[in-house]
Amino acid sequence: MSKKQNTNSSPLVYSTDPNYLPPVEQNELETLDNQEQPLRIILETKQRAGKTVTIVLGFVGNEADMNTLGKALKNQCGTGGSVKDGEIIIQGDHRQKIFQYLKLKGYKKARL
Predict the structure, then answer these.
(1) How far is CA 38 from the centre of its chain?
(2) Given this model, what pLDDT does residue 93 score?
(3) Is residue 28 domain-resident?
(4) Separation of alpha carbons 68 and 76, rounded Å
(5) Which H or E run contains 40?
(6) Residue range 81-98: average pLDDT?
(7) Is the residue at 70 inside a domain?
(8) What is the largest CA-CA distance in the chain?
(9) Residue that wins the pLDDT comparison between 11 and 75
(10) CA torsion 62→63→69→70, rounded to 10°?
(11) What residues pair up with 55 in beta bridges, in sequence order?
(12) How many domains does the chain have?
């Protein structure tokens, strides 16, 4: 069963205040150019049941662009992973592959 998306995300139903203005929606972040992205590649095993994962941190931009980069990195490494909480998580130790791919795509500030 799928839930329908409510386009009105405001919890306010009715206001008696004559000067009330509805909250202004915030626009998503603008994605920085590849050359300006301060990406950091780390290896982590803590709280992952002993499994090793490679994490790409520091992406500045909207969620859709981060998902696109995450999908490209997963395809490049040939493994699974996810994108959540501002992190791109790739299963396994693929620091060098990810670093080389990011350099190839123009991410000049990427570092291990």
Answers:
(1) 13
(2) 96
(3) no
(4) 12
(5) strand 40-44
(6) 95
(7) yes
(8) 60
(9) 75
(10) 150
(11) 42, 89
(12) 1
Question: Whole domain around residue 47: which residue ranges?
Answer: 34-104
pLDDT in tens, 11-63: 667 778 888 887 766 666 788 899 999 999 999 998 888 899 999 999 999 89
* 102 Cβ contact partners less than 8 Å away, ≥ 6 residues apart: 39, 41, 110
Q: To which residue do tokens 């123009």 refer?
A: 106
Highest-pLDDT range among 2-16, 28-42, 72-86: 72-86
pLDDT at 3 over 60: no
CATH number of the CATH domain containing 46: 3.30.780.10
112 within some domain: no
Instruction: For the chain, report the end-to-end CA distance as a whole number of angstroms.
Output: 43
Question: What span, in angstroms and rounded, lies between the C-alpha atoms of 98 and 41?
Answer: 8
Report if residue 8 sits inside a domain. no
